[in-house]
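Researcher: I need the complex structure. Ligand is manganese (II) ion. Inputs:
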Amino acid sequence: MRNDTEMMVFTAPVRAALDSGKAVVALESTIITHGMPWPRNVETARLVEQTVRDTGAVPATIAVLDGKLHIGLNDDQLENLGQTKDVMKLSRADFAFALSQGRTGSTTVAATMIAAQQAGIMVFATGGIGGVHRGAETSFDISADLEELARTDVMVVCAGAKAILDLNKTMEFIETKGIPFIAYRSDEVPAFWSRESGIDAPLRLDSPREIAAHKAIRDRLGLRGGTLIANPVPADDEIPAATMDKLIEQALNDAASAGASGKAVTPYLLSRILELSDGKSLDTNISLVVNNARLAGEIAVEIANSN
Ligand code: PSU
Ligand code: MN
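Model: Output:
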């Protein structure tokens, strides 16, 4: 795909930054189409891009539009994507399908990692990764994001795995697959809307410089696969875990009654929690994504400067 100029479309600032070795941060688009309601999804996407720019890095929001893989979106494309209803939610399994059929799809963490690696972007910011769902021992629902992290060489800055998941099982899976899980300035695994999960973080680093140094050693050792940087939501915007637990319990029950399955599970739970929390969960989600974009920008700048 790298030499297929037809299939991949770069915005001018992203192309220029990649050609000159400047810092670039990839951003996903499923959070825009399936994670937040319009118009706050588009407002957030713009704010996240500006936050990346403020660190000195160039933002590249990734999506498939009419069968072309866009690395960086202009403002009209962002607005259109945020308002379109029947956008596909793309992961590894259906990424090529959307391109070959001329479809429009937003990219999940898994698909954004694939696109970022193809484009030569090393750092990616999102909200929360997918993981092992509660009840996975019977449903087998494990996000393709985890397999992607095991195989694709992109650093993913997130606020942990979404607390709707089974965090213990998710952490076991991450360990089994050999994915470095690095909590940023914290000893605990952050739980998306909450700073705490009660689970000890496997690794901790406290600065973009240390994170860049860790990446440099992994590269020298030839260790393939992604690295997770787990950045706790800012304290002022967190929803305490005890409050979240009740909302999540209710949302999971409602999802079961509604018969949500497959790709629809995560979007259903996120929108139900938004309703149950009277909108508070969305404010928290926006805060943590912006916070992750800032850290990802700082890390990308650090990596670019050390090359
Ligand atoms: N983080 C958010 N909101 C989201 C997502 C992440 O704050 O909507 C999306 C990501 O695109 C992630 C996807 O890859 O949810 C996981 O979906 P699933 O559990 O179906 O794999
Ligand atoms: Mn799933």
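Model: Summary of the prediction. The chain has two domains: 1-121, 122-307.
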